[in-house]
Amino acid sequence: MARRCGLCVALDAPDLATAEGWARATAPQAALLKVGLELFSAEGGAAVRRIAAHGPVFLDLKLHDIPNTVAGAIRALSPLRPAWLTIHAAGGAAMIAAAREAAEKAGGGDRIRILAVTVLTSLDAAALAETGVAGGPVQQVLRLGRLAVAAGADGLVCSPREVAPLRDALGEAPALVVPGVRPAGSAADDQARTATPEEMAEAGADFVVVGRPVTRAADPAAAAAAIARALAAR
Ligand SMILES: O=C(O)c1cc(=O)[nH]c(=O)n1[C@@H]1O[C@H](COP(=O)(O)O)[C@@H](O)[C@H]1O
């Protein structure tokens, strides 16, 4: 049976008023609302608290540091109660395990779920090779995905192209969260590994993350509704 795939709207705004306007417009279509580095850097924890009034929050800070520092950051963030929080899988098994432990200690039944970012969707094979990683994105995503799930990550962030290989390798349990999704005809922007919502339909993702195609549309509510319809029509 096909999984339900929800829309996560990336609220990448320079201020809370703009982000909250997008949240209000898109919340009826959105399974998650994402507060990322730009909004959090501008507005701090107030952004998470305010956006949480419109729907479950995915706090995307992509933590990447030594285990003790990441665990401390998660303790400090835990009063904000985001549903999901990102760390970088490249931080290694000990860092991922420390993140999971900190999330468990911080919180009851609705603890923060840890998502490990594998290979950023803005990197193509050549850009990845420049960082010293040979073998291409799929191989590296599988390597980091296996490591992260074994170390305690609840889910993974990957590009549309790696969803099917990750499901084959890791089964149904880990949540797969997929940015880089672009409706047909919309600009790729700085994303390198993309697919349309329709192409995502059967691939087995739990959430697609979409920012600019929604937030820069003339009518963000209509753009979100169109993507939600495309995801549901599988
Ligand atoms: O962790 C993420 O959400 C993320 C990981 C990744 O590899 N690529 C990626 O684009 N993202 C985020 O997903 C969103 C994509 O936004 P748009 O490119 O505007 O749709 C941004 O908020 C990015 O920070």
UniProtKB/TrEMBL annotation:
Catalyzes the decarboxylation of orotidine 5'-monophosphate (OMP) to uridine 5'-monophosphate (UMP). GO terms for molecular function: orotidine-5'-phosphate decarboxylase activity. Residues 6-227 form the Orotidine 5'-phosphate decarboxylase domain. Pfam families: OMPdecase. This is Orotidine 5'-phosphate decarboxylase. InterPro entries: Aldolase_TIM, OMPdecase, OMPdecase_AS, OMPdecase_bac, OMPdeCOase_dom, RibuloseP-bd_barrel. Substrate binds at residues 12, 34, 60-69, 121, 182, 191, 211-212. It catalyses: orotidine 5'-phosphate + H(+) = UMP + CO2. One of its GO terms (cellular component) is cytosol. Coiled coil: none annotated. Belongs to the OMP decarboxylase family. Type 1 subfamily. Homodimer. Keywords: Decarboxylase, Lyase, Pyrimidine biosynthesis. One of its GO terms (biological process) is 'de novo' UMP biosynthetic process. The active site is at D60 (for ompdecase activity), K62 (proton donor), K62 (for ompdecase activity), D65 (for ompdecase activity). Pathway: Pyrimidine metabolism; UMP biosynthesis via de novo pathway; UMP from orotate: step 2/2. It is an enzyme of class 4 (lyase). Its EC number is 4.1.1.23. Transmembrane segments: none annotated. It comes from Falsiroseomonas bella.
